[in-house]
Each structure stands twice: as C-alpha cells, then as structure tokens.
Amino acid sequence: MGKLEGSNEVSVLPDKVFEGVPKAPYGLLEALRRVQAVYGYLPPEGIRRAAEYVGVPFAQAYGVATFYHQYSLEPIGKYRILVCMGTACHLRGNSLNIEFLRTLLGLKPGRKTTEDKMFSVEEARCFGCCGLAPVVVVQKPDGGNEIVGRANPRTLRALVERYRRQERGGAK
Amino acid sequence: MNWTLLDRCCEKCTHSPEKPCPDYIECRLSGPLCHDDERCREMRRQRLEELRYGEKGAKIKVPMASCTLATGAEAVYHAVEDAVKNMGLEATITISGCHGLDFIDPWLELSAKGMPTAIYANVKPSDVPRILEEYFVKRDVSRAFALKERVGAASGEDKVPLLGELGFWAKQYKWVSRNCGVVNPESLEEYVASGGYRGLSRAFKLGPEATIEEILKSGLRGRGGAGFPTGMKWRITRQQKATPKYVIANADEGDPGAFMNRLLAESDPFRIIEGLTIAGYAIGANQGYIFVRAEKPLMAKRLQKAVEEARRCGLLGKNILGSGFDFDIEVILSAGAFVCGEETAMIAAIEGKRAWPRQRPPYPAEKGLWGKPTAINNVETLAHAATIMAEGAEKFAAIGTEKTKGTKMFCVTGAVKRVGAYEVPIGTSIRVLVEELAGGAPEGVKVKAVQIGGPSGGCIPANLLDLPLDYETLQGAGAIMGSGGIVVIGHENCMVDVAKFFLTFTSAESCGKCIPCRVGLRVMWSILDKITKGEGTEEDLQVLRQVAETVRSASLCALGGTAPNPVLSTLRYFMDEYAAHIREKLCPALVCSALIKYRIDEEKCIACGQCAMNCPASAISKIESGKYRIDESLCIKCGVCYTVCPVKAVYKVTGARAG
Predict the structure, then answer these.
(1) How many beta carbons lie within 10 A of that of residue B437, not counting itself?
(2) Which helix (H) or strand (E) holds B311?
(3) How confident is the model at residue A142 (pLDDT cuts 50, 70, 90)?
(4) pLDDT averages per 10-residue partition of chain B, 659 residues
(5) CA separation (Å) from B289 to B224, B286, B327?
(6) How far is A9 from chain B (nearest CA, A)?
(7) Is the pLDDT of residue A6 over 50?
(8) Number of helices followed by number of strands (H, E) in chain A
(9) How far is CA B620 from CA A9, B169, B633, B653, in A?
(10) Do B103 and A131 touch (CB under 8 A)?
C-alpha cells in the first residue's frame, strides 16, 4: 500500500477506504483507524479526510488523533512490538523485557522506532491474556498478530532475529 | 442448509421478521404453540439433539477466545480438521467461547451419542489424532481432563473426574457465565436453544415499568465497579422528559488483570445484546451503543457479528417480536484510552470528541449522549439483567449478601496456580477465590498481598484474605471491588514498586483535563521513583500522603479520585517496605534495580556462558577459572542473566551487601 515514510505528503487515499464506516461522529475512531491502516500512521491529510467524512471539524479530529495511544502521528516500524504493561505482566517481568528489547534494538530514550524503520517497541495496555503473562504482541505488516506468551529475553531475542531473517529472505 | 430452530416449522407458522409473532421465542423450544402437530414437535426435539451431538452424532468443540487463541487454539482447530478428514470421522467441528479456566488452554471438548462428554486440557496440535482416535474409535476417555457426565459406556470413565466435582468448578455459581465455553458464540440458534431471549420476551409481556420493577426487586447493582442499583438508574432515565434517549454498554474493560467482560462477550455475546435491548425497552430508548476497548478487538468482532445476526432474525430492528418496540445497536471499537471507561468520557468519545470526562451532575441519566438522557451499564450488568429477566428476580436475590445480591465474575491472575475467571456469589471470601478456586500460590512462592480493583483499587495484605468480596467491605479495607480483577502478589514482589507501577499507569492515562489528577499523579510518581532509588526521605512520605489526599478529593472524575488507592493502601499495610527503602536504602524483595546488584555464585556457575551471550550491555566476561563475572560498572541491571541462568547461579543482593 502507499505507505510514505518521513513525509507529510501522502498519496491519495483509495475511495473505498471509509466503506462501511458510519457517516456520524461516532464513526471517527474507525475512520482514523482505516487511514492508519493505509499509511501505517496518521498524516494530517488523512486526518482531514476522516474528519470530513464523519462531519466533524479538523481540529476536533486532530485532537482525537492525539488523544488515543493506538494512533501514531509519526511513521512507525514495520513490525510493531507491543509489550503488555498490565499488572500480571509487570510482576512477571515485562518491565525488564521492554528494557531488554530497547537495548537490543539500540533505541535511545524517547525513541520507539529503529533507524531502519523495521521495529517499533511500545508499551501496551493489558490484553486480557493474563494467564500467559508476561505477554508481548507483534503486529505484523500483513495485519496479523503474533502473541508471545511467557516472554523472556531469550524468546524475544529469537523473535527479533526470526523477523530479521524473514526480511532478509523476503528482500532477496 | 438444514432446518434450524430459528426457522418456521411448517406453513401454519405466521412468524417472519417483518410480521413477528410475540410467542416466537417460547415457541422455539416448547412449541409449536399456535397449532398442534407431532411432526413439528419432533423436528424441535431432533434439532436440539443435533445441536448437542452434531448432525452426525459426534461433535468436536474447539474454543476460540483470545485466551485460547493465544495458546494455539487455531492450530488445534486445523489439526482437528485434518485428523477428521484423514480418519474419515463422521463428526461436526464447531467453535465455542472459553470456560475461563486459563490453565487448561487450549482445550477440546468431544461428545458423541452414548458417550460421556469429555474435555481434554492443554491440547497440542500433535496430540489431536491420538485424542480423536482414543475417544471416537477406542471409546476410551481415560486421558481426558474431565467429563461432563458419566454414562458407563466408555473405558476409563471412573479414572477421570467429573467437571462438576472439581473444586474450581463446583465452588463456582455459574449464573451469568453459564454459556461460556458451552455454546457457539456465533450462533443465535444455540443461544436461543440454551434459553436465550426468554428475558426479552418476558420483558415485553411485563411492560417497561414492571421490567424496571423486576430489576429493582432482584437487587442488581452495577458490576463495573461503582455498584449503583441498576433498576434505579433505569428508572431515573425513564422518568426524564427529554427524547430521544440512549443506552450504552460499557465494554471498555481497561483494568489490567480484568478480562471477565472480554470472556463474556467473546463466549456469549447475545446475552449482552439481549440485556442492552431490555435496557433500551425499559427506559424507552431506540438506539444503543456498545463501546469496546481497543485492546480487545475479538470482543468487538463477536458483538458486531451478534448484532448482525440478531438484526437478520428480527431481534433488533423494527417492531421486535411484535412488541411495537424498535431498537438497534452500533458497536464502536475504541482506539486506546483508559479514561473511556468513565461514563462521561465514553459519551464524549462516542460524540467524536477527545474522551474528556466532565463534571457530574448532571448525570448521564439526565444529560448524556448529545445532551439526552442516557443509561450506561457495564456489559456484565447487562448480561445479568437478561438472565434475571429470564430466570426471575427471586432466584438472583436469593444469592449474595444482605446488601448486594447475585454473583460476580472475578479474574484471578498473578502468583496463583490456576489463573482464570471465576463466577462466585457476592460475599465469597478472597481466600476461597485465591486458594480454593485459583489453587493458591505456586510452589516456592508465598502470597504477600492481593491487589483488587485494578489501578483504582488497593493492595490487601495476606492476613486479610478472609474478607468477603462485596462493595462495602472492600471499600472499608482501602480497596474497591472495581471490575473484579484480583492480582495475587507473591513475596518476590516489592510493594513500593507495585505502587509505582500503578502510578505509572494512571499518570500516563490521566486525560489531562483537571490539574489535581494531571499534576498530582506526576508528583506522586516522582516521589515513589525517588524512594525506589533509595533517595527518599521521611518528609517525602508526608508529602506523598498529602498529595494523595488532594488528588482523591479534588479530581474531576473517578480515574483521579481513585488513583491514589494503590499508594494509600500500600502505605497503610506495607509501611515496613517503604521504611526499608528510605532508612536502610534497601529493597527487601530485591526488585528495585537501583538498590540491588547482580552477582554470580562461582560455586554454582557451570560456565555455560548463557549469561554473557544474552547480556545486552556486554557486562559479563569470563574469568580465569573459566566461570563468569559481572562488571558492576557496566551492568544495567536488566536481569537477563538472572532469568537465563540454567542453574540459578546469578543472585541479587541489596543494602549493605550490595555496597
């Protein structure tokens, strides 16, 4: 899809992007989600289109886009690694796991995406799979999720290496 | 497609979604009611049998809920499909939700005519052919986890316990979760076959006023946390003159450690749809919304599917069941903000604005969505309402305590053997839930505290485990029932760190509208951060208390109003741990990284090199003896070596020993 990186100019949104989204203010959350699905983040033009579609002012839609943590206003990594920060996951080691991932991927404080835009590491809210704590979820570029239960530094390192290998294999 | 219970049985039936029959629901199970025909009766009996054992007399049920999917249920499903094909089995494969017993995920349920229904636990895809062979071909159930009944026809039946005999099942009171893990959550027919929609049907016969009376009589209180009487909320909303009115199902289950709403919506979504429809009818609303938490998309998907199915069968839309009542539902998936669980914030979110709470009163019952009267109920509350309308208020009111009737679903996680969601009568003690249902702490771990009610709740020490779970008692002890998440904290956790963890959560989720919450929580977090680094002073504790009180009394909404609870309750019960951090600069539980150091016990070290290989800071190197040592000047205290060491040679020290 037309994913642009590091630029505010975006390609035209496909006409059907808002298909089935209610043309009412309560459709805004879904409309923004559709835009993010196309670009991988929310460029201003995309927010404007979503606002227009559901019929709210751009400023209001922009306010909403900056409010929720699942929206990103900057490009994010191809693989989005979400580290659950729920209570059970915290107690069972995810605070250490996330630091491990940040160090492993060379992320400086305040940065969530690697230089090569391959990985983003983000804190996430409880997924409700506390029986598997600590839980890490990888949102893959194909839209699928990989849920990693009982995560530890060893499994996480293997996970990152596996995706890196896949990328090298896929790039040919 | 074959005839289903939802279809007309013969030409004499006059029902259609356009011209609905008021007796449609009753007629599904005990019909036909408008004419007498043994064939029509027989069709129903036969279909119910088919639903139980499948069209071919054998049925394989695979649970498809977030918890089971995370443990590999999808691979199990494919393995079942393959095995059935390879073995040439005549069996129906179907999906279900989950029982809430996370420790047996993923599981399989097999049933066949003349055989006891058997549940298999922790199934791996590679086990599937063997399990199917044993059950369907050899008729041997000896390796099952539990049976649903005994029929004396399969070998090994006496070696396997009945599910109903197992403590974690027998001690539950399955009222609102009765269908979880039992029915196919995507099948309206199975919901109706299990008694679904009788509640709505009865509400239509009673009328809206009497429906509210019935809910009042049951004593149902909101299960989202605040415990406001549901009937009262409905009555106040009904009495408002302004129109139109709205009903909203609060499915923004955000407390970490709470997943009962997710389980319910993924396993029995029609019960919530029915409950919301009843709420709409009772207060006089024609539009309902279900607002679902962003992190639980399967919940939204199941609810959306259920809405479409109910629409198709005329249980949503115009003139539902010939009552003259029109009602429809929209499902909205959030984009991630904890504060959306607060009712006025949720209303703002549905209006397409930033989810900022606003001052109450006026309460949503008077001025809610678009300024109109709105009843907001938690999904578990709505599912209870549907069940109460079907089963009768007396039955519900007979369970529970003097002040709070009925049952509640609790999720027990953390340091327990059997993580899961359990439904028990209100007033059950924390100890029964933690020790008897969830199996207590794993070997080698001692329970130090339980955290109840998520970020708004508090930590209750192990010596108070006999407290009953009800709204008033927990409040008195400094916690709240909240949505019912119980996180068991083992002795290896630091309570100051736990308090800081919750403050990290609430200060990040503070919406920023009011100053006490936005600034106060920051200040509290900084003080806790100082203490966990060994830089805290006695004076800090005083300031911490002061700020906590201010945040509690001056915040705009419940997020800020309750956020100090984890701090205040740990100060109340675990002062010794705070004191150790401040006076002795040590962390007794060996958690706070600034106060601990990692060392390697050379006696125990087997020189495998795992620690050095995994150390992200390259702080571990080989010494002359061939063993390993940590360079403390490079160590970032991430704990990786501690987790990866196969012989536990890495240990932690604190206080003087770490000097």
Answers:
(1) 24
(2) helix B297-312
(3) confident
(4) 88 91 94 92 94 93 92 94 96 96 95 96 97 97 96 93 95 97 97 97 98 98 91 98 97 91 97 98 98 93 97 96 97 95 97 96 96 98 98 97 95 94 96 96 96 91 95 87 91 95 94 96 97 96 97 96 96 97 96 94 94 87 94 87 92 81
(5) 16, 10, 11
(6) 24
(7) no
(8) 6, 4
(9) 47, 49, 11, 17
(10) yes
Q: What is the DSSP letter of A126?
A: -
Q: A67-103: per-residue pLDDT in tens?
A: 998 899 988 899 999 999 888 888 888 988 998 899 9
B190 at A interface, C-beta within 8 A? no
β-bridge mates for residue B654, sequence order: B596
Q: How far apart are CA B584 and CA B655, in angstroms?
A: 7
Q: Which of B 467-526 lie inside 8 A of A, CB atoms? A: 485, 487, 489-490, 493, 498, 501-502, 504-505, 511
How close is the nearest chain B Cα to the Cα of A16, in Å? Answer: 20
Judged against a pLDDT cut of 70, whether residue A2 lies above it is answered with: no
CB atoms A103 and B617 under 8 Å: yes
**Which amino acid type is present at position B194?**
S
Tell me the C-alpha distance between B292 and B335, whole Å. Answer: 9
Q: Which residue has the tokens 């196969």?
A: B646
Dihedral sign from CA coordinates of B539, B495, A100, B607: positive
Q: Which of B261, B638, B652 to mutate to test the interface with A (most CBs of A within 10 A)?
A: B638
Mean pLDDT in residue range A17-26: 95
- Rg (alpha carbons) of chain B, rounded to whole number: 27
Mean pLDDT value across chain A: 87
Q: Do B489 and A100 touch (CB under 8 A)?
A: no
Q: In the prediction, which pLDDT does A11 show? A: 65
For the record, the structure tokens of B585 come out as 């600069």
List the structure tokens of B356: 């900022």
CB atoms within 10 A of CB B335: 23
Give pTM, 2 decimals. Answer: 0.93
Dist CA B349 CA B333 (whole Å): 10
- Taking contacts as CB-CB distances below 8 angstroms, the residues of chain A near B290 are none
Task: Tell me the nearest-neighbour CA distance from B354 into chain A, angstroms.
Answer: 5
Is residue B251 a contact partner of residue B292, using CB atoms and an 8 Å limit? yes
Lay out the sheet containing B118-120: strands in order across: B92-96, B58-63, B108-112, B118-120, B146-147
Q: What is the pLDDT of residue B479?
A: 83
Return the SS3 of B254: coil
The tokens describing B597, both together, are 């150091």
How many Cα neighbours within 13 Å face the side chain of A137? Answer: 24
For residue B58, what are the β-bridge partners?
A: B112
Contact between B337 and A63 using a beta-carbon 8 Å cutoff: no
- pLDDT at residue A170, as a whole number: 63
User: Which ipTM score applies to this complex?
Assistant: 0.89
Q: Does B573 touch chain A (CB under 8 A)?
A: no
